[in-house]
């Protein structure tokens, strides 16, 4: 009996599923290419051809599992900068809350080790975040709430505070989001976006 080789999407899906099972069951420290290959019934060579690190494979598996919306096409317009930022925070949280706790621990570990993969993933996230908040800034300028575009640092602040909450405190509650917007984010936007 000849064994049929899996290829393409079917093999990739099997690898992603095996990766997430091991990550959840055994934790990041015990998630290895050898374990994943064994669980997915494939070879380590298949994994090494596609991914440089286990962290990169885990990231791809979680991204595939969550199928994130195209953040470039998300338009939020509540009629005010404050309302837009609150809606953005809720949108960000709802799309981040599905991320596996073990992946968050893995990401923190990789960032602390100076991983190039982790830096690349964060740069991608920041580009998505700037795209998302950029629409709110443009609308605020049209509504004369801001006179100029705040710096990237200011525009990323909301997402950075929410990441901090998600990693160290847990997801911010609705009243926390409003306080964060009113006490931290809006003052920063107004300081950086007014003449």
Architecture overview:
The protein has 195 residues and is an all-alpha fold. It has helices spanning 8-26, 33-40, 44-50, 54-66, 81-96, 101-112, 116-142, 152-169, 174-193. The chain is elongated and about 60 Å long. It starts with 7 loop residues before the first helix and ends with a helix.
Produce the secondary structure layout.
Layout (H helix, E strand, L loop, with lengths): L7 H19 L6 H8 L3 H7 L3 H13 L14 H16 L4 H12 L3 H27 L9 H18 L4 H20 L2
Helix pairs in contact: 1-2, 1-4, 2-3, 4-6, 5-7, 5-9, 7-8, 8-9
Name its key features.
195 residues; mainly alpha
Low-pLDDT segments = none
SSE-based structural type: mainly alpha
Based on CA atoms alone, the radius of gyration comes out at 20 Å
The shape is elongated
The N- to C-terminal Cα distance equals: 76 Å
Let me know the number of strands.
0
In short:
Helix content is 72%, strand content 0%. The protein has 195 residues and is an all-alpha fold.
